[in-house]
Amino acid sequence: MKKSVFFGALAATTVLAGSAFAGTLDDVKARGELICGANVGLTGFGAPDATGAYVGFDVDLCKAIAAAVLGDASKVKYVPTTGETRFTALASGEVDVLIRNSTWTFSRDTDLKFDFVAVNYYDGQGFMVKKELGVSSAKELDGATVCIQTGTTTELNLADFFKSNNISYTPVTVGDDSEALRQYDAGACDAYTTDASGLAASRASLANPADHIILPEIISKEPLGPVVRHGDNNWGDIVRWTYYALLEAEEKGITKANIDTVGTSTTDPEVKRLLGLEGDMGAMMGLDKEWAKRAIAASGNYGEIFETNIGTSTPIGLARGLNALWTQGGLQYAPPFR
Amino acid sequence: MSLLYVRRDMLAPQAPPASQTGAIRWIRENLFSGPFNTILTLLAIWTLYQLIALSWPWLANGVWSDANSMADCRAVVAANAGPDASGACWAMIRERWHQFIFGFYPPELWWRPILTFALLFVALAPVLYSDNKGAVAKMCGVVGVLMVLCLIGADGFSAHTVFAAAVMAALTAIAATKPRLLLIVTLLFPFVALWLLWGGAVWGPIVALIGFMVLAVVYGFVAPKLGPVMGASIGFIAACLWWLLLQSYVSEAWQALLPFELIEVDSDKFGGFLLAFVIGVASISISLPLGILLALGRRSDMLLIKTLSVGFIEFVRGVPLITMLFTASLLLQYFLPPQTNFDLILRVVILVTIFSAAYNAEVVRGGLAALPRGQYEAADALGLDYWQAQRLIIMPQALKISIPGIVSTFIGLFKDTTLVSFVGLADPLRGITTIVRADIAWKGIYWEPYIFVGGIFFIVCFGMSRYSMYLENKLKTDHS
Lengths: 338, 480
Fold this sequence. Notes:
The complex is a heterodimer.
Chain A: H1 2-20, H2 24-31, E1 34-38, E2 47-48, E3 54-55, H3 57-70, E4 76-80, H4 86-91, E5 97-103, H5 106-110, E6 114-116, E7 121-123, E8 125-130, E9 144-149, H6 153-164, E10 169-174, H7 177-185, E11 191-195, H8 196-205, E12 212-214, E13 222-229, H9 233-252, H10 259-265, H11 269-274, H12 291-299, H13 302-309
Parallel strand pairs in A: 1-4, 1-5, 9-10, 9-11
Antiparallel strand pairs in A: 2-3, 5-13, 6-13, 7-13, 8-11, 8-12
Helix pairs in contact in A: 3-9, 3-12, 9-12
Chain B: H1 22-30, H2 35-60, H3 70-81, H4 91-102, H5 111-128, H6 133-155, H7 159-177, H8 182-198, E1 200-201, H9 203-226, H10 228-257, E2 261-262, H11 272-298, H12 303-317, H13 321-335, H14 344-370, H15 373-381, H16 386-416, H17 431-438, H18 447-475
Antiparallel strand pairs in B: 1-2
């Protein structure tokens, strides 16, 4: 009896909670601030710098959304989330959107009641080995010792990969990335495996990056993207199309530098629609005409954000790879703006 | 007659043989007194040598300046000590020390946590050295001078430095003349600290303080008629009513009348040792009285109070701290109405306090159990009531016995504050270190942040431990 009352109350709170989230856009506008669930320690993607200001690839997407919705890219409050707390923070309404290199999986999308509205980075698990090992493919790693972080999906992917290729390995389990790097550097393991984006950053921080190679095999799919709660489709649309606006801007050659002039010089109707010079697409999702223009002006288009944070000109030096535009052989593809 | 074979004068005393004096004797007695000890000594020397040989070059080649990244550090070490040498990269500490100390607290406001930290010692001094007036004034003076040095180091010589120095000078003067008055500072400190650290209108803490005065006044009226327990309960209810119903209106009215405020600092700017101290000091100071009450409750004859106390203590002790922290950060969010902004630091402080109160209760209960029955009977025979007996006879002795246990609970609690990194707070050990490592310039740094943070933790915990030894010696009344 008592139990049922308790669960009844719990259910009632959940329903109340659900209905109160109906208008995330209104909440954000009323608050005058976007609350973005962020990572505090992923090189290039999201972390506070020496002055405490958040920088990174994921952080720039938060800024673009804030610029689109509130008109000011600086009106973002970053809530630090850990791997354990991130989904609860989103589900309980503590954050409006979670942009924290979270992999889009079936159960997260359905069972946890979230929507992964886009994929802003296609990642995958890779291997780094010392050049002197003389290995050019992960399939040659038979009998190798492999450094791997415990309790992550990378552990399972690794086991699957070696089993399916009928080769053996000895795992050296480590707690986190820094420890893995130290073990690998000290020669405790032949190979280090984690997401390829993380491997690139790790390789860049070693004493002689040229002595190490990242093997070509990518053994898992890790589509990372912004996450919102189920049930507020308008807010999901805003996050999704803000991201696509950044992609479209790269495809159409709209950059942070030329955004003020391109509107007058272009004859492309899609660019005019995107920049709010023709039609009124912002109104369809509760924003004004220039939402996309502000989003692009915040940190540049997708390509610019990629290059400044993690691209080949940075020490991390990631190539575009799968994250190139579809016109250049990648997977990044924005649906048409019409 | 004289006997020629008898000595007439005494021989001068001779120095003992070389093997029986000074260092040689000490070494023989303590290090090589038998084959077993000889082997142990040699093993220890060998181990020490290995450790030093391993770490000394790394420490000696350490880089402090001239480097802005790991790569720079490696270049400097290679230039100074050859290409294969390893060296510590302390340049990271030089560049990021402020995040380890203050987290993301705005640099122009650093004077506020520094002043708060100095005031903490002023508030503690009369409690720590209750019968040693000279020590109180000395402590205030020394802390004041150190604070001024820190302030000048942190943001140069500014108006804030002068203000803080004046405050400390005034308090030192009070400590030198009327140290008892400093107890007022002790009582006010929580409110001052709250205001200095988080900023905002001064009226919030003041009106909250009035809530405690309401408690005191109600207690004063009710206690003589209905007894101290009822007095405290009714007073507490009255104070809660004040805080819940009137607090916001009254403070807003005063703020409208007399606006006086500091720049507000959000909780998410707190990090590093600032966060560790906020959580540690708040939890320590609340959990001790709470623990004493729980210990008394557990030994009480009243069934309800006893059952509640036992249930609370056993439940909390049976749950790991991490679980409590996850409750604070995750579960509470689901139960509270959506969009409530119940500060995460406050939630963590409450649950850490509950946790350490349960442990303190058991430590104090150990002290109570060690008292002979005669002490209780003597108190009864003197006609003291329950609270008088506790205050005058039982607690002074029981707490004295419990000092080592209490202090070790405190030390454990202070170190446990690093666990808050699991709920996304920037503790100095893991939180800030992860942030620093996320910078591509410092990625791959491993030992240096741990050594730096560990060193500061050691100083604080060692200080607490030495104070507890001082206190034990001071309170020692036996003749051994």
